[in-house]
Design a protein that fits this description.
Bound molecules: zinc ion
Helix content: 55-70%
CATH superfamily of the largest domain: GntR ligand-binding domain-like
Order of helices and strands: HHHEEHHHHHHH
Number of helices: 10
Largest sheet: 2 strands, antiparallel
Strand order of the largest sheet: 1-2
Strand content: under 5%
Radius of gyration: 19 Å
Structural class: mainly alpha
CATH class of the largest domain: Mainly Alpha
Number of strands: 2
Shape: globular
Low-confidence stretches: 220-228
Length: 229
């Protein structure tokens, strides 16, 4: 994309850096150099500075005085806050989606849930497919502010998931998607809210079990501390 003005260049840099966080090209704890990031994404340092400032206010980067920004590494308390926020937002998006989704949209949710289950049966990566279901439900809720906030939280969740080496091969996960999706298809708002709440709480419980069972060993932590972007 051509970077024609400082403002649009900052937008492009912001989108590109979010993409790099989402796909794991930038990992939790990694130190970020503005000039090197600028070279990587093909723009001058100023738009990168602006994009990094926005990512800091999104909660994705942290910066201490006089130090380089780093990709945020979540504490156990941060994860609790993340899941509580997701629960608050997504019980509402599920309720609204059950009320407002069109037949075409409910078919799309069913298709995304099938994609997720197929990937899981084939023991392939399901993280992106899971995010797609939750984002589509938020889209069907027709409340842009909720969707924007959820996008931010999902990006933090994806990054945190990688840092904890979480796996999506949990037994209860696809079943709770199925009940949730069926409730939306049936336009049953109470059940949609109930099953979404359960789904998010199950996810949080799994993270807590994981943290209790293992010492937290961020994936590629050695590489992250060695390599700067
Ligand atoms: Zn899910």
């Amino acid at each position: 994309m051509p970077l024609s003005s400082p403002e649009s260049a900052a937008d492009a840099a912001y989108r590109k850096l979010r993409q790099m966080l989402s796909c794991g090209e930038l990992v939790p704890g990694q130190r970020l150099s503005q000039s090197r990031l600028g070279r990587q994404i093909g723009c001058s340092p100023m738009p990168v500075v602006e994009a990094m400032r926005r990512l800091e206010s999104d909660g994705l980067l942290v910066k201490q005085a006089r130090k380089q920004a780093r990709v945020r590494r979540l504490s156990e308390q941060d994860l609790e806050g993340l899941y509580l926020l997701r629960e608050a937002i997504e019980t509402v998006t599920a309720r609204l989606a059950a009320r407002r989704s069109t037949p075409e949209e409910t078919r799309a949710i069913q298709g995304l849930a099938q994609d997720y289950e197929r990937l899981r049966e084939e023991r392939l990566e399901t993280g992106e497919a899971d995010v797609a279901i939750h984002r589509h439900i938020a889209e069907c809720a027709r409340c842009p502010l909720l969707k924007e906030e959820l996008d931010r939280l999902m990006l933090i969740d994806q990054t945190a998931g990688r840092s904890l080496e979480l796996r999506e091969d949990r037994e209860g996960h696809p079943h709770s998607h199925r009940a949730l999706v069926q409730a939306i298809v049936d336009h049953d708002a109470d059940s949609a809210e109930y099953f979404m709440k359960k789904h998010i709480q199950d996810g949080h419980a799994e993270v807590r079990r994981f943290l209790a069972a293992q010492s937290v060993r961020p994936r590629r932590s050695r590489r992250a501390s060695r390599d700067e972007a």
